[in-house]
């Protein structure tokens, strides 16, 4: 992921970023997330969501050791990508039921089938600014850092 041109081409304008201009928007003519929502940029296995899942795999064991999930809870991973974290949560906690919530083009690439138990999870597409699924526990990993405070409160 880090070697993909979407990351290193914008570095040529890093000085503009310091001055308040988004280097990515200048190089690609669109925002980062709009770029990755285009079908032509999702076709490859070398895409943003697969890359995020790979990076997240390093963090997931520590997260699982850091929190004890209550039995029989429903966990919703908001903007959970292809579900790498949620898969690990389900594997470590056999009584949980989970919801992977993201946009439809992302959900079709989910990895939750690897669990081998399709009754313990479901996919739900949507926009977290409109509504989120009902759950006992919400995971919000790597999603609020790029939104202004007033949007974070909505999420």
From TrEMBL:
GO MF annotation list: O-methyltransferase activity
All residue ranges annotated as the O-methyltransferase C-terminal domain in the record: 16-153
Organism domain of life: Bacteria
Keyword Metal-binding: no
Keyword annotations from UniProtKB, A to Z: Methyltransferase, S-adenosyl-L-methionine, Transferase
GO biological process, one term: methylation
Pfam families noted in UniProt: Methyltransf_2
Identification of the protein by name: O-methyltransferase
């Amino acid at each position: 992921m880090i070697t993909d041109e979407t990351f290193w081409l914008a570095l040529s304008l890093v000085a503009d970023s310091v001055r308040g201009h988004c280097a990515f928007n200048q190089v690609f003519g669109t925002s980062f997330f709009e770029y990755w929502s285009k079908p032509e940029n999702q076709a490859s296995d070398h895409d943003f969501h697969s890359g995020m899942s790979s990076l997240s795999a390093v963090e997931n064991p520590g997260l699982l050791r850091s929190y004890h999930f209550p039995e029989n809870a429903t966990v919703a991973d908001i903007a959970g990508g292809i579900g790498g974290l949620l898969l690990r949560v389900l594997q470590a906690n056999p009584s949980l039921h989970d919801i992977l919530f993201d946009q439809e083009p992302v959900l079709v690439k989910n990895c939750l089938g690897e669990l081998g138990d399709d009754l313990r999870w479901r996919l739900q597409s949507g926009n977290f600014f409109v509504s989120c699924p009902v759950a006992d526990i919400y995971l919000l990993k790597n999603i609020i850092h790029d939104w202004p405070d007033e949007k974070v409160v909505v999420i």
